[in-house]
Amino acid sequence: MQAELTIDLGAIRANWRALHRGAETGAVVKADAYGLGLAPVARALAEDGARSFFVAQVEEGVALREVLGPGPEIYVFSGLMAAGDAGFYRDNDLIPCLNSIEQVSDFASHLAEHTFALQLDTGMNRLGLEAADLAHLPTLGEPRLILSHLACADTPEHPQNATQLAAFHEMAPAGRRSLAATGGTLMGANYAFDLTRPGIGLYGGLPFAAAQPVVKLSLPVIQVRDVAVGESVGYGADWIAQRPSRIATLSAGYADGLFRALGAGLTLWSGDTPCPAVGRLSMDLITVDVTDLADAPATLDLLGPHQGIDAVAAAAGTIGYEVLTALGARYARRYVG
Ligand SMILES: *Cc1c(COP(=O)(O)O)cnc(C)c1O
């Protein structure tokens, strides 16, 4: 039996609405909507009125167009990476975010007349045209959107936010503009421009602290055994029972995106009762101390009301984004809301 991942589309919609800041609110659905399922997530947001979607790769854009049908705008962050991609952009009415002089030239040769966006680098040094490049662009029409991305928006007081904001105004004094992902959206009207691009906040993650939780992950118990004082559990015999213990073995492991680094720092929940994971987390199995439960549980929750993606991320030394996008293929996915 597979573990069950419940995805609350109603919570995603509510988070999208809660991020409205006067500007148009877009939706970032790259990486299979952060691992939660491109088609159901994009459909739910389109039903609620989202009209601008963002993906990372052109193939994701093709899949998204199939889901949404004609109408909504689909921007592709990586832009025109190869001349051979021009057909995908044309045939699926996708908007490339052009990132370099080379991409702009390729666009002019292979896609002239097609709608495009310009991505500017205002200080992150990852993707986008630099100020010096702008003087050397071939003549194009008006971009549908000019965008840039903040490096430090999860830390509102970081001075780089204001520096990048000023650079964006300087490089793009006019036009339809977008600077804010989730963090920037939360930093207020100065950062909102014409269109915001939240991703993680839709899916219940920080830095949107007020987000409704979106995912619940319940792991089925395969068996429960008694372990005597002095006996060990799991690979490496790392954990040794200090009291007569009942250990439940659950069906999920690092092959399902539950990082091995979580190890014994992980807590699972039986309703409102916390149960500590013990021993090493393995590929398909997690062992949990359920001695303090009155009855052997049928399932334990790893993600739920008591423990969200950011709590699990903290236990693994990572971020909620990675927890979500790592959620594996072996879960039975159930959509509610
Ligand atoms: C991923 C991404 C976003 C969304 O970021 P969140 O922090 O998830 O809101 C927005 N813009 C760009 C360019 C991105 O790569």
Automatic annotation (TrEMBL):
* Keywords for this protein: Isomerase, Pyridoxal phosphate
Q: Which InterPro entries match?
A: Ala_racemase (IPR000821), Ala_racemase/Decarboxylase_C (IPR009006), Ala_racemase_C (IPR011079), Ala_racemase_N (IPR001608), Ala_racemase_pyridoxalP-BS (IPR020622), PLP-binding_barrel (IPR029066)
Name a biological process GO annotation: D-alanine biosynthetic process
The active site annotation covers 30 (proton acceptor), 235 (proton acceptor)
The enzyme class is isomerase
Its function, per the record, reads: Catalyzes the interconversion of L-alanine and D-alanine. May also act on other amino acids.
Q: What is any one of the record's Gene Ontology cellular component terms?
A: cytosol
Q: Which domain of life is it from?
A: Bacteria
Q: Which residues bind substrate?
A: 126, 283
As given in the record, the signal peptide range reads none
Modified positions (N6-(pyridoxal phosphate)lysine) are 30
GO MF terms held by the record: alanine racemase activity; pyridoxal phosphate binding
Pathway, per record: Amino-acid biosynthesis; D-alanine biosynthesis; D-alanine from L-alanine: step 1/1
- Annotated HAMAP family: Ala_racemase
* Family membership: Belongs to the alanine racemase family.
Membrane-traversing stretches: none
Q: What is its EC number?
A: 5.1.1.1
Catalytic activity annotated for this protein?
L-alanine = D-alanine
Residue span, Alanine racemase C-terminal domain: 214-336
User: Which species is this record about?
Assistant: Pontivivens ytuae
Q: Which residues form a coiled coil?
A: none
The protein here is known as Alanine racemase
Name its co-factor(s): pyridoxal 5'-phosphate
